[in-house]
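**Tokenised fold:**
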Amino acid sequence: MSAYKVGCVHPTSCVDVLEFEPSGLVRVLGWSIGAEPLLELLVNGAPLDPVAGYRTYRPDVADRLGAAHAFRGFGRDWLARPPNGEFLEIELRVEGKSALRVAPRVRVQVPAYDGLFTTPAVLGRGDIYSFGPPTDDVAETFSR
């Protein structure tokens, strides 16, 4: 995972970090006093729609603000599948203004569990993991 600091670019919120993984998952984390800021993500110049948005527990922000509830943090996830298979440029816009632009030059490696990023279903362990007899193939580091 690669991470880039963003910083406070809006009066009522702060975007702490933009993270991205070779799987194509791009995550933005930050905090806000009230409503979350409008975030836009462009990968290789093309805008993406978020696949998830959520609040996070940030007691540090609540303490600093003297706020009663501690869920002042937010997260937003996007799933990027650039046509050429490579992150050439990632741009984050906050309230319509460019807050971060990076050129990571990383190839997307779509994982075997790719469908788990976007399924609306609530899955249990049996839906995610396989079952059957144990494998005979063991990495050398684990065999003795």
